[in-house]
Each structure stands twice: as structure tokens, then as C-alpha cells.
């Protein structure tokens, strides 16, 4: 009889375990995806989003239209009403609202538009600035932010053909001041996908894999900074850029970015690398959660879209030796089209716009507008990974089981970097597998201090925490984090 029970258990237990695994919560249990119904016959290739008074949302499209979405913040996306506000503009990739005006970043300029007659259509168009040039190349995109705290709009300008700077200020980032002046601030841009701010109000943009960009990444638009691609150096001689001084040294192709950063003071290394293929392939729009908890436990973190993988990821930042660096984490997949703009709405939900024409995406729809809303349930996640002099501190969104979170075997780490080169992209190189030598769980069970045998400056430190469980026995919803360790902090 005893032998029969043992045999029965051998067959039943795996089945029961599999059933339990099937019932594990998914992303959708925490963040619901609401897909808007696009007006029949219309093509809304999302390029820019902005919130408006009264819960309205403005959507700019790659085809040059601006649409206003009303009643879009309900749990039924069919409630949304779309009205075309403007058309005839050129590939809109930035919107900002102020004093009744919509500021539209298009390829050739920033133009502000408004409805001065109260008829629901834009009837006044005024050029704010056109301080850069275009020559008709397909890749000469211009991405624009919303307003910063000082009333500036930040701009990033894609290279000609995404390889060379053949038009004035292509491959630069900069700002448009409240009085309409174009001020170039940052050279070295390659192929941006979005521009926005962290919770502190500093400007960042996403750049994409290509020449002088091994992977995609998040970069800081620091005044006087150089962010990687040297073909833009020719414009330092222009009157608008002379205040920055001479162009930086040209980096050596085939080396490593952090090695070159020690030789070139203006070179700001990529703040957060998005490991290619693992965290997407075309980094796009940026927005920070300033909702005060309406979007869940990630207040003040950054959210970044990926066009190819049709995903949204999370980013946390910290300053080490005066420069931003940090980590990225998977957040939400399954969007119906490649994501370009992302924007937090007044209710704390995240609006995303999609397009895949000419670019391709996992999401198989040609365009989309979606709303991502928190259900009120807190997922068990790595909340933040922070660097220490001899390892990392990992914070969690919920209390952990101290036994599993305190075991070295629950974690695995590997590191790698990328070649900094003039040719296209890079594989992962210089790989290491440092040992995790010690783990201590905090008294409140909300964090774990992890000691690592050998940190690698300039490397992504990929941490997998597959063995960690929450206090109520759940595995992490996403058990991986990628920290870009450009600078190793001193002991705290």
C-alpha cells in the first residue's frame, strides 16, 4: 500500500505542480491593456502624445495629423472619441501643450498651432524655430519633448541616413527656449527614438544600435556633452554652437566606450544599456511616472517603449561620480504594434502609440493607440537595483521570503560589454561570470545586499534572481535586471 501511494505521488505531484504554475499571475493581472478602436478608414501611426486639460489626449502621427482623443480614460476603450485637429504637417514626433497652444515637433521645425475660433480645428500655425536643416533623407527625424521646468522643449535630430551628418546639426540634441531660440547642447546623437525627462527634470533620449552604438540605450542630454557618434563634430563651428568650445577628440574605433571616456572629457557614456535582443531592438519613447502611486509601486521611475519588440520597460537611475547610470527591467509585453511615444495621462495610466511602417514589429497591427492601467494589485518585482562598491543592493516591491532571498544559489550574475566602433552594432564581448559571495536580507525583508567577487567597470551586470520568493511564496514576475556599471561607487 505504501509503495502504491509513493508511485501515485510520483505521477500526481508533477501534474499538480504544473497546474499551480499555470495559475501564477501574469503581467495582465497587474497592468491591463486597453486597445482603442481607431476611426474606420483612418491611419493613425502614433509618433507623439501629450495630455490636455479635461483628461483629453493629443496624438500626433507620422503622416502629419494631430488628433484629439476625448473620453479615453475609462475602462472601456470604445468610449473614446477621436477628432482630427490638424493635418498637412511633416512626420510629427513631438507634442507639448502650453497656454492653449500645441507645440508640434516635425522634421523641419517646431510649429505651434491652436484653435483661435473655437471650432475644434487648428486654424493658427506659427513657426517657433527652424534652427536645423533637412535634405529630404528618409531618416532625418526630429524628436521633441514636452516642456521642461524652465519652459524649454528638448530636440534630438537623427543623422542623415542614420550614418552621417550631412545637414546642419544632424546628430545633435538641444533645446528650444521659451523665446524660440534653438540652442544645440549635445553632439554625438545617432538615431533617436524618443526624448523626455527623469523625475528630477533632466533631459534624456533613447539612441539605437548602429555605427558607434553597439546596443540601444538611454543617454543624458548634458550641456556640452558628447554621446557617441563623432560625425556631428563639423557643426561645432556654427555660431549657435560656438559657446561649447572646440569639438571633442575623435574616439578610437574598436575600443570600449568607458576607455574612450577617460580620454575624452566630453564623452558621456550610455547611462543605461538595453541589451540587444534581450530588452528590445529599437528603443523609443520616454516618460516618468509622476502620478504619486496611481500607476503602482514604481513612482518616479522611467518607462521606455521599444518599437521592434512592442514592449514597455522600466528604468531606474542614480548618479555615481557625477554621471547618471542605472538599470533596466522588463515590464509589459504584448502590445499590438511597435511602440514609439509613451505618455502618462492625468489618471496615472500610460498611453502608448504604435506604428510599424518601414520598421517592422512583433505586434502585428500597422498602427495602434493603447492605454495601460494598473489594476491595484502590486506585482512581486525587482523594484530597483543599485550599485555598491563591492556589489549591489536589490530592492523588491513586496517583502521577500528571507530564506530563499538570502541564499546565494537564488541568484546568478554575468557581465558583458560592447565594442565602441564605427561599424554597425556589436556582439556582447568581454564576458565574465563573477561569483556572488554573500547575500544579506534586510530586517524588513524588502531588500537584499549582494556581494560580488569582481565588478567590471563599463559592463552590463545581468542579475537573475530565479530562486527568490515573496513572503507568500510567489516567484518574481520578472526575475532579471540589467545594471550598466560605468562607474563603481566608493564605499558608502
Characterise this structure.
It is a single chain. By secondary structure, the protein is mainly β. It has two domains: 346 residues, Neuraminidase (6 Propeller); 104 residues, Immunoglobulin-like (Sandwich). It has four helices and 32 strands. The strands form seven sheets. The protein has an eight-stranded antiparallel beta sheet with strand order 18-19-20-21-32-31-27-28, with no helix packed on it. It has a four-stranded antiparallel beta sheet with strand order 1-24-23-22. It has a four-stranded antiparallel beta sheet with strand order 2-3-4-5, with no helix packed on it. The longest helix is centred in the N-terminal third of the chain and has 21 residues. It is globular and about 65 Å long. The N terminus is likely disordered.
Tell me the helix content. Answer: under 10%
Question: Number of DSSP strands?
Answer: 32
**3D shape:** globular
Please report the first level of CATH classification, the CATH class of the largest domain: Mainly Beta
Radius of gyration using CA atoms only: 24 Å
CATH-defined architecture of the largest domain: 6 Propeller
Head-to-tail CA distance between termini: 61 Å
| Tally of contiguous helical segments | 4
Q: Strand percentage, roughly?
A: 35-45%
> How would a textbook summarize the main sheet?
8 strands, antiparallel
